[in-house]
Request: fold
Amino acid sequence: MNYSTFKIDQPKAGVMLVTLDRPERLNAMTEAMFDELQNLADRLRGAADTRVVILTGAGRAFCAGYDLDDADALSRLGARGMYTLQSKAARALEAVRSIPQPVIAAVNGAASGGGLSLALAADMRFGVPITRFNAAFVRIGLTAGDLGASWHLPRIVGPGIAAELMFTGRFVEAEEAARLGLLNRVVPTAELLPECFNVAEQICVNSPFGVQLSKSALQANLDGLSLRSALELENRGQALATRGNDMPEALAAFKERRAPQFGG
Reply:
């Protein structure tokens, strides 16, 4: 399926590269992008041939948030219209977070407002020296609690830093972002996608079902499960993982000290 706001490629076996493709607008979000992200996330739920998703932006930005040309109309939508639009956007980013495959954000430039929230919806983030983040909506009279940012940020950087970033809307440059945990690490621009592919390949060596169960357990615990509930979820995951073919193959390969090759 072809999309109008991003393009998809499969540069390596098992790896899908999703590139936001509105470089003339710094890959800013539109209603069409929300619809297409939701559609892509739904398709990926049954995509056994996709093991890892890498999300990046075309041109010099990752995503500049909601398109300001469209934002001019927000105050005229009325409460119901604004709530409908906001709900659509929130569902799209929640769908990205709930993609069963690991999602790596290759943050190649600015990630502002909704772009910050989109990057936060990924499981991990890698950046370059020009990467920068900010909770932009507080600077145009809206709330920085947008599209999951108020949930993700305290869990990643802690409540005090999250409060500072959300209340001021200031930019966080790449090196600070790495110190705070917003980025896993910063690499030279030319090495961003190769680094993400390298991590993806390390993931693909492992059992696809085991990785998906690991992601499910990690997200459920971030959602605030008690220890007892977390243990029960983990127990079920381990029991399910032993029912397929991947676990015996992985165990045998581990014993032989070689990397297993999974069929997906």
User: Anything to note?
Assistant: The chain has a mean pLDDT of 90. The chain has eleven helices and ten strands.
